[in-house]
Amino acid sequence: MKTEEIETPALVVDLDKFELNMKTMSQAARQYGIKLRPHAKAHKSPNIGLAQIAGGAIGICCQKVSEAEIFIDAGIKDVLLTNELVDPRKLDRLAALTRLATITVCVDHASQVRALSKAAVERKTEIGVLVEVDVGQRRCGTRPDASVVELARQIQASPGLQFLGLQAYHGTAQHMRSPDARRATIAEVAAIVRDVKTLLAEQGFQCTVIAGGGTGTFYLESQSTEFTEIQPGSYVFLDADYAKNEPEPAVPTFAQSLHVLTTVISIGAHGNPVLDAGYKALAVDSGLPSIADRKAFIAKMSDEHSVIQDNGTPSLQPGDRVVLTPSHIDPTVNLHDWYVGVRHGRVEVLWPIAARGPGL
Ligand SMILES: Cc1ncc(COP(=O)(O)O)c(C=O)c1O
């Protein structure tokens, strides 16, 4: 099928750019001498997860048990769940996955450790545990002080659990526009990690895993000597928000490889073109999508429509195709069932977005 024949709205992957992004990150991790464990929450596709492993990744990260189940079912053997779990049913499902894969999960509270240990014992298995430290994002994570040592001690004393180290991810740093701001923030993160490791070492706890880093800062965690593995996700596709980050010289960059292909279905009485894709095809938490190939912008959106303010020439007509760049890929991908992979103007692959959904 030719690209012009794709039914819209469709999530379209430029396979040349996607493959280049995959290669760039694998090579960067090798050059920095750091393990790569990409975050699969970005793409939610076992096809892509398996390609990342084939490219040298040590495993993947998931954010939800439902994601881990789908990736492990597809053959992935090592999953870090970068999240906290409290529901005994989810903990039991996680423990069950250890039959098929190496599983590591995060905790930041004593009650999670108790519940996790119970689930591991009931399934007669062992689960690796990272203490998540709040390194400045103000989301999950314990304070970077003696409370980490307390949790490590509790984990080590809990049957079925093994203390492995720390999760130290700073999400907001990923989207800081200036390279200096990103560098300064991750320097603070590395200092926090160093101090916490010292506190742990004083009490006899060694960290074999220190995990963190995303698409915006992976090179900084890699260059610091504190981290053992990085967990970028968005680099496979990028998005309009990431494109606003000023690049750091001599650091690998990534191409926009994912777009939403749309069609003009109307020129309303107002004279502006109306597209067949709205909030149900594009997430807008990081702003409205941008238009990839012409001087025009989305003026407003509703559930199934986007209205273009068209300054472009020639002006658009019903039936014309318009390529949109999502502002934030993770929640955009989650709205779609399939990736349509294209190369040289033709559809080459369809990949199901098998792990999409709210994430139980
Ligand atoms: C815990 C964690 N690690 C890694 C990532 C990957 O970040 P990015 O997709 O910006 O590379 C995310 C994304 O939100 C995350 O929540």
How does this model look, in words?
The protein has 360 residues and is of the alpha/beta class. The protein is built from 11 helices and 17 strands. The strands form 2 sheets. Strands 1, 10, 11, 12, 13, 14, 15, 16 and 17 form a 9-stranded mixed beta sheet that branches. An 8-stranded parallel beta sheet has the order 2-9-8-7-6-5-4-3. Strand 6, helix 6 and strand 7 form a beta-alpha-beta unit. The radius of gyration is 22 Å and the shape is elongated.
Q: Secondary structure elements and their pairing?
A:
Layout (H helix, E strand, L loop, with lengths): L9 E5 H18 L2 E2 L9 H9 L5 E3 L2 H9 L4 E4 L6 H10 L4 E6 L2 H13 L4 E6 L13 H11 L4 E7 L3 H4 L4 H24 L6 E4 L5 H6 L5 E2 L9 H4 L14 E10 L5 E3 L14 E2 L4 E6 L4 E5 L10 E5 L3 H5 L4 E6 L2 E7 L8
Parallel strand pairs: 1-16, 2-9, 3-4, 4-5, 5-6, 6-7, 7-8, 8-9
Antiparallel strand pairs: 1-10, 10-11, 10-15, 11-14, 12-15, 13-14, 16-17
Helix pairs in contact: 3-4, 4-5
The structure holds pyridoxal-5'-phosphate (PLP).
The site of pyridoxal-5'-phosphate (PLP) has 13 residues, from helix 7.
